[in-house]
## 1
Amino acid sequence: MITFDQINYILSDIFTRYQSLVTALGTVLINRDLNGRVRLILSATVEANTELTDQLQSLLEDVNEQLAPHAWPASRLVLFEDDLEAIKQGSPAFALPDYPNVFVVDRLATETDWQTIEAESATPRVVFFSIKGGVGRSSALAATAWSLAQSGKRVLVLDLDLESPGLSTAILPEEKQPKYGITDWLVEDLVDNGDNVMQDMIASSDLSHDGEILVVPAHGTNPGEYISKLGRVWMPKLQADGSRESWSQRLQRLILQLENKYQPDIVLIDSRAGIDEVASSCITDLGARLILLFAIDGSQTWSGYNILFKHWQRAGVIQKIRERLQIVSGLTPDTDTAHYLEQLRENAWNIFTDTQYDAITAGEIIGDRWNFEESDDTAPHSPWAVHWHRSFTGLQSLHGRLFEIDTKQVDMIFGQVINGIADLSEQDLRD
Ligand SMILES: Nc1ncnc2c1ncn2[C@@H]1O[C@H](COP(=O)(O)OP(=O)(O)O)[C@@H](O)[C@H]1O
Ligand SMILES: [Mg+2]
């Protein structure tokens, strides 16, 4: 019995048996469609070469036989196309290990691609991410925004946790919530109507007197047909010239527009939680300079991060984003704290070592390879702690809480995160 996970291994095996043919085919795309069924896409020049197409027949039969039900029938298993590069660019694609000319192209219900990862934006952006909800992520973001604004910064806050929004109510009082939110923009943009909601999707918070907190919520005062809209937000946009723009590129465009218009010193993004393609792209595709990975020590957290890191490893993007990652210990217990953090650091180090760190002596930097010792406080696996504090449990209104809080208490609970992010925006000023 064959399941999805075996597709690449079986194809590798078959290709090894047809090594010279596979080399002669030039670029080979393994197209895994929405149903997880495989088709090969080859250059149109192959189709014109009868010698190659003859040899190809037996390979196609082998693929069909060994991959069923995850392959198309042999007679329809191959497509010939003129522009393989364009197909590769349009979807997440990664090279099959040991085959530099063979690429796996994934068609997912939520279309994204890996092309936007490198672009780091001029304004520092920080993504707050977690595998699960309820780890104190939005509260930490709100406290950070408050603290940075207190020190005179203009902070732009985006609630991208569209499936589970809540950040804006923490920072804005009810009467200040704007009419629209990010969801409205993503839906209106599909019909070129984004500019019309842009004006009314942002509000200034009353929490800070020195700097400014600008908030773009997930939805407006009246969420409207929120679930119907949510079903459309992760759509790619078909441009007039026939090209496609993935949702993460659309979102990039929105954030850039907001940055240009409001000129924030820093942008804080509350990401979608979980380990699906959309959550993964929130981390990799938004040009963030720093990605905070909230963790509560436990097997659910680590198995989740392991899945995510392995996904980036397979896609060959881990080297591009590992320098931006930072583990944060959420809701750190107030008893036995040092031991808890040590344990969390050890567990984080284990999966970073498995999936991200290179096999070189720790601390040494050779070219662009890197590694960190378990005890290295500056390492991305070494947690910044957000402390659990009774005054933040089960809050009716975080906005009310932040309204009355003092700097000392915020620093005590959220200090490591706030300082880490403040350093980032200082660095930017010095550049
Ligand atoms: N530092 C903290 N100490 C104690 N409770 C907290 C803290 N931060 C958040 N909480 C509480 O934990 C719950 C989840 O917080 P929230 O910030 O919404 O988490 P997330 O965004 O990860 O879902 C809320 O009830 C909140 O009041
Ligand atoms: Mg949240």
## 2
Amino acid sequence: MEIQQFEFVPADIEIAAGSTVVFVNLDLAPHTATGEGFDTGALRKGERKEIAFPTAGEFAYLCKFHRHMTGRIVVR
Ligand SMILES: [Cu+2]
């Protein structure tokens, strides 16, 4: 998952349970991907964080610094 121009690209994804999502910030501004049960912490430009999703569910998330940046991860 890339973060660029103050958007998650793609913001909404569907993955299989047990998969991981790698968040990579390509912006100069710091961002987070923060949802119920997970948080990348602040990612600066070029930094990445891998988050595992072991169980099925729907996980909305946002950037704590720019709360209009939102997305949803569906784990099946
Ligand atoms: Cu942000």
